[in-house]
Amino acid sequence: MLATLLLFAVVALVANPLVARFGTRMFPVLALVPLAALIVTIVQSPAVLAGDAHLESFTWIPQLGFEITVRLDTLSWLLALIVTGVGSLVLFYCTFYFGRDEEGVGRFAATLLAFAGCMYGLVIADNVYLLYAFWEGTTVFSYLLIGHYIGRRASRTAALQALIVTTAGGLVMLVGLVMLSVTVGTTSLSELIALAPVEPLVTTAILLILVGAISKSAIFPFHFWLPSAMAAPTPVSAYLHAAAMVQAGIYLVARLAPGFADTPGWREALVTLGLLTMLLGAWRALKQNDLKLLLAYGTVSQLGFLITVAGYGTRNAALAAVALLLAHALYKAALFLIVGIIDHRAGTRDLRKLSGLGREAPFLATTATVAAASMAGIPFTLGFVAKESVLAALVADAADGQLLGWVAVVGIALGSVFTVAYSARFLWGAFARKTEVEQVRPVHESLGFMFSPALLAAAGIIAAPLAAPIGTALEGYSAQFATTGTDIHLALWHGFDIAFAISAGTILGGLALYWARVPVSAVQTRLSTNVNANELYLETMRGIDRVASRITATTQRGSLPFYLGVTLLVFVGTVGTTLILNTTWPSEWRLWDSPAQLAIAVVMGIAAIALAGANKRFQAALLLGATGYGMAAQFAFHGDPDLALTQVLVESVTLIAFVLVLRRLPARLGQVHESRNRLLRAVIGIGVGLVMAVGSIVALGARTAAPISLELPQLAYEQGHGFNTVNVILVDIRGWDTLGELSVLIAAATGVASLVFLRSRTDNLPRPPKEVRRRTLRARLKPLPERPHEESRPDDASTRSAWLLAGFKLAPENRSILLEVVVRLMFHAIIVVSLFILFSGHNAPGGGFAGGLVAGLALAARYLAGGRYELGAAAPLDAGRLLGVGLLLAAGTAVVPLFFGMAPLESTFFEAELPILGHVEFITSTIFDVGVYLVVVGMVLDVLRSLGAEVDRQQEDESDEIAEGSLV
Amino acid sequence: MSVSLVLVALMAIFYSVGVYLLLERSMTRVLLGFMLVGNATNLLILVIAGRSGTPPFYGDAPASEMSDPLPQAFVLTSIVITFGVSAFLMALIYRSWRLANADVVQDDVEDVEIGRRRVSVTSESSAEAEDTEFGTRAAAAVSTALDLEEAERLEEEQAQREARDREALDRELRAEDGHATELQEEEKL
Fold first, then answer.
1. A709, A711, A723, A958: best mutation site toward chain B, by most B Cβ within 10 Å?
2. CA-CA distance, A960 to A70, in Å (whole number)?
3. Digit-coded pLDDT (tens) for B6-63
4. Which terminus of chain A, N or C, has fewer Cβ atoms within 10 Å?
5. Do A347 and B32 touch (CB under 8 A)?
6. Residues with Cβ < 8 Å from A532, sequence gap 6 or more?
7. Domain B5-100 class?
8. A439 to chain B nearest CA, in Å?
């Protein structure tokens, strides 16, 4: 069976190109696939009928209990026969139905075959999740099939409607299936039914599953999608909406009934909704003029009938239900196919436009009559046999005093009266001669076209005399129910009993309704109301659209502070609640570690609070600096020299960058837009602060295990060969983190540059020409020759000697000789210090980050003293190149060990006694640290050349423009 | 583990002021808030790291007396990344100022537009299905059979007409909105 499923999938995949290439004559070939499945099922019949369920299993995700398990017992066997048999007949029928120039027929063929495969899988699946997967598979394929005429709005709307209604039900069902399988502890359908525990959770799960079943089978209140779905091509209606998909819900109810029919609410819900649907559908069917719609409402009615009986859940009703299922599939598929032939021939399905077709197409009319007779339950058809057994079962139950039995008998009898009436109306509408309507023209009847409906209709007659053996076969299903003593068996003729009396009464009543069709129609028109489930559905959909739009407009305001505020409020609300409920608190409390900690904290706190009210940018920069340097002091007192060092350096670089940006902005903060909601912001801020404070205390209180870091210093020394544990963690133990961080830095640096540079971010720092660079300091220190036509004063800055390479390029009023001299003298020393910090970092405070920042500060000093030309002179390397080389070195340290059979980032230690240097040690993680150093230098350089040099250039350009403009 | 309350209090102040500034519309204040929140988070890690101790250098003291080195490595990473992101924010502020002369977090124009536009529901209304799939193409069509191609063409035209109407309505609404804004501005003046 699994192989057969695979065959469906494979052929469905290639069907589209095949049909597109060879045309509709490929349909008989495709029909061979379901035929093969049919044969497989038939071959297994003896075993199944002997009560031996055939099981095939393939383990997929054992952790989730997801196994591809298929199981063939009597019920599955019956459904598999119907699904594959009708499937192959419908595919064969398509050969004649579609014209040569039909649009998208390849897609149609592939989808229909895939649908048939899903349907086959659905009825044999034993795993609940597999069942659900096939269930939704049929939904999706039915969407594609109903929407086959993509150019027609009716077709698209109907497809979407069917999809939404059945998927909504399917999702509810999934919840039920998960609840059920988790509660019971198995995902096997057969085991679930065998165990069938009685508890509230299971009851809820079963009722949820029923929602899925009734939405699929178009039971009230979901019945409206089925008539709309008649926009599909008629073969689809014949297969999906008569024999296959809509019976899936009935199948599921029948499948679960042996275990769960006694679930509270099951019987009441199914019988009530089923009868309501039966009557509603039949009443509507009687007023349709479109033959296909007549059948569609008839199907709704019959599905209501089926679910009533299948859900009734007694042994006799169960047998009657499966017999009725078979009869319905045979006659309803045949009738739909016949309507398709009528449409194909006459170009209409409207019974007001058809006349005299019976005389022109006697074979068609005979077939239709046979099928309709089975539908109406005329004696000696399979429909009659099934209905007799239904009535017998229910009457017996009613006689036992079951109220529900009485309700069911009366409802079904009333529904059957209408069924007989609309069956007669169907035959009359399609084939009778109507004097006031033009006669149809004669056309030769195609035998091939007639083959499928004729076979199906004939089966409904041939099966009737075989009722007894069929009944015996199907009792394999009903035997799962407890016996009540009087078992009813299927038979062609039960004799003149109550059931027959009811049957005869319904036939006579139905015929009377038919004869009185003119007054009945008048009554129906008068009674017709505007309350319509379809309109309700549309109104609901519009409502959902409206609500969605309203919600989007309310929540998505485009305001960043609003979003952030909401996020933080939720944070305060949820985390705050958790904290209030918390019971673990730290064992020890201290006010401070040292008095210095308190003193610094007071200064920092005051600075931070003042920052909230700062109005000027430079004021803010200073206050921010105070908090930042305070952080460094806190780190130092906590015993973290590395952090203190890095924090001081970073704070300096940040301040420089901040000031560089601020000089181009107005001095006052937020002058233009007065900020609102000051109080609310303060409340949110304080809320977050408090939650974080309490949260940190609770988090600390939760730390009870010995920290991992007790091992780290030892580990860092023995494995990483470094005394400075923090540095070894960065470059060795947790090197991956640092590698990730370097990537973030590079991204940030690139982002800064691309935001400031408008065209390209390539290095365009002005570099002094070679001869300037080669000039010795002595040459540069010589005073410049005086310009002949300019009067120069001794104190004129422009004639001053240049301590810096770019000194001449500066505007004289911008130069500070003191700064130039200091920078000139310090620069190289600082670079050497930065290298010392880099290499000593392994054993003393420092490392790549600190070293890189020191070098960056040296560059910043050059820039501040000498402007962008000086920066160009000081940094002969492009910032992008520094970043790239740095990352390459760091990543190289990660990758190279792989080639030596080591783990990534694993370090190697070398030591040697060198003649002059003495004992020399080298560990490869130092290379990683050099990479870090280069990336940090590159980052600072990028900030300087973007926020410094490029901003200068843009400012100069602007002032040039303004100057030019004023001249004009 | 024991708690140093001074650090906790300081962290709470930093978070409060930081969030207060983050919720501002001035981008510079957002940047200040971001940096404060960054520092606050470093303090948080410091608090959770436990008590202070001697610097974590191997051999200087037993490991149990050292300050915890692992959080320090995290904070070090965080310090440098905060710098990188701050620099990015600064560049953002500069660019915003240069292009729009504004240091303000603007509302997203598209989002505001969604909120202002009156709800126009676009779901397809139900359409009457034809009573045939073949119509005049059938083998022996009755004289009253539908011409489906004609019907499809009409439907297409109808859809186009509706789309045009919707567009016109949209334009009208937008013009109305514009008018309303003008009026408001006039009132302000």
1. A709
2. 82
3. 999 999 999 999 999 999 888 888 999 999 999 999 999 988 888 778 888 888 788 7
4. C
5. no
6. A224
7. mainly alpha
8. 8
- Going by C-beta distance under 8 Å and a sequence separation of 6 or more, which residues neighbour residue A311? A253, A257, A261, A266, A267, A269, A270, A271, A274
Q: Considering only the beta carbons, identify the residue of A343, A711, A844 that sits closest to B132.
A: A343
Contact B71, B56 (CB under 8 A): no
Tell me: ipTM over 0.85.
no
Interface test with B, best of A661, A674, A719, A853 (most B CBs within 10 A): A661
Assigned token pair, A594: 């040292």
The predicted pLDDT at position A794 comes to 44
The answer to whether the CB of A108 falls within 8 A of the CB of A55 is no
* Residues of chain A contacting B140 with CB distance shorter than 8 Å: 345-347, 440-443
Query: Rounded to an integer, what distance in angstroms lies between the CA atom of residue A657 and that of residue B93?
Result: 12
And the tokens for B113?
């537009």
Residue of B nearest to A344 (CA): B138
Tell me whether residues B105 and A560 touch, CB distance under 8 A.
yes
Q: Which of A590, A714, A730 lies closest to B73 in CB terms?
A: A730
Spell out which residues of chain A touch residue B163, defining contact as CB-CB under 8 Å: none
Domain layout of chain A by residue ranges:
272-317+327-515, 591-662, 718-785+795-967
Structure tokens at A382: 């399979």
Q: Which amino acid is at B32?
A: L
- Are residues B13 and A609, on separate chains, in Cβ contact within 8 Å? yes
Q: Is A734 exposed, middle or buried (0-12, 13-18, 19+ CB in 10 A)?
A: middle
Q: A389 with A492: CB under 8 angstroms? A: no
Q: What is the CB neighbour count within 10 angstroms for residue A43?
A: 9
Rounded distance between C-alpha atoms, residue A689 and residue A572, angstroms = 9
Q: Are A169 and A216 in contact (CB under 8 A)?
A: yes
Q: Is A325 a residue whose pLDDT tops 90? A: yes
- Quickly count: other Cβ atoms within 10 Å of residue A404's Cβ: 16
Chain B nearest CA to A557, separation (Å) = 6
For residue A633, name the pLDDT band (cuts at 50, 70, 90).
very high
The Cα angle at residue A274 between residues A268 and A278, in degrees rounded to 5? 145
Q: Where are the domains of chain B?
A: 5-100, 108-120+146-189
The pTM is what? Answer: 0.70
Read off the pLDDT of residues A137-173 as tens digits, 9 standing for 90 and up.
999 999 999 988 887 888 888 898 899 999 999 999 9
Cβ atoms A116, A8 nearer than 8 A: yes
Q: What gap in Å lies between CA A792 and CA A808, rounded to an integer?
A: 15
Check residue A673 and give its pLDDT: 47
Q: Which amino acid is residue A434, in one-letter code? A: K
pLDDT of A787 above 60:
no
Helical spans, DSSP H, in A98-199: 105-124, 128-146, 153-184, 189-195
Alpha helices in A58-97 (DSSP H): 74-97
Q: Say if CB A223 and CB A299 are below 8 A apart.
A: no
- Which residues, other chains included, contact B105 with Cβ-Cβ below 8 Å and sequence gap of 6+? A560, A561, B24, B25, B26, B27, B30
- CA angle A292–A297–A300, rounded 5-degree value: 130
d(CA A463, CA A384): 11
Q: Which two tokens stand for residue A966?
A: 């004023």
Q: Using DSSP, state whether A301 is helix, strand or coil.
A: helix
State the DSSP string of A678-710. HHHHHHHHHHHHHHHHHHHHHHHHT--SPPGGG
Mean pLDDT of A502-520: 89
| Total Cβ atoms within 10 A of residue A508 | 12
CA distance B88 to chain A (A): 5
